[in-house]
Design goal:
349 residues, alpha/beta, five-stranded mixed beta sheet, Rossmann fold, rod-shaped, Spo0b-associated Gtp-binding Protein, Chain: A
Length: 349
Amino acid sequence: MKFLDQAKIFIRSGDGGAGCVSFRREKYIEFGGPNGGDGGKGGSVIFEAVENLNTLIDFRYTQHFKAKKGQNGMGSDKNGSKAPDLVIKVPVGTEIVAEDGETVLADMTEPGQTYLAAKGGDGGRGNTNFKSSTNQAPRYAEPGWPGEEKWLWLRLKIIADIGLIGMPNAGKSTFLSAVTKARPKIADYPFTTLHPNLGVAWVDGKELVLADIPGLIEGAHEGVGLGDRFLKHIERCQAFLHLLDATGDDPAKAYADIRKELALYNPKLADKPEVVALNKCDALTEEEIAEKKALLEKACGRRVFVISAIAGKGVENCLRETARHVAEKKKQSEEQPAEETPQGGWSPL
């Protein structure tokens, strides 16, 4: 299934049914009064967040969504039936944005969450409602009220515990495939990953969702490279695992560049917990590793893990440290005491 994280759609709620102009026509009743029923309400357009979707690809092929019109009123005081609501299912993590592309109308972050995007038109009143002492045979009924119509943007921000960030070809996809059963495309050239990939790993008996974000480069917040299209996907992550290529010329500079792009895109990202790992260390000597690790620790001001995702070296400890930050972040956001971490190792799911 192709990954699509943005789509523009047109929605229209149903018009209300028209009221009925009708009079009693029965044997032995010469002057029957009005008995026109009211029209039914038009269907509304409702968005619902569901768990079994992870892409907006369906909206590439269907961009127009229109609810049905309410049934017209009928004689004998029969009201028209209400039209069914049109429910549009979207992945959890979808933002519903106005046509201007900036105004966020709803943020669908919980399974089962709904949002009324367009209300159906009310049905018109039948001529029975207009009967009075001075007008006992009204020949007028209201038409149904029109529904609402609008263009909307759907923007998907994936929800993950850990966001794998770093320069292109830093080994993020390899790390994801090493700790989960996800199988992203892996190659030895930059920008192999063209869309985010998700995987699930177990750390000390707890489930963690990891997101492999396409590589960022200097100027990404302004659209350079793959641009800021994928930066939005790390906004919901609880913590970052920052991977750096140990075989690169200057991992310390690469680290500073990525941190700068995060801060320029959204200053709040700079406050998220981060674990830094020097990847591909199986290709270097011990002296080269020690030198680059020292320079990187000086640049980031924290402990640097030395790992090799392809060989599995140091991966477990690195993932466990990231999981600890995730647990602390969730504790702060939920304002609940942290649960005791069960003993055990980690395993892919």
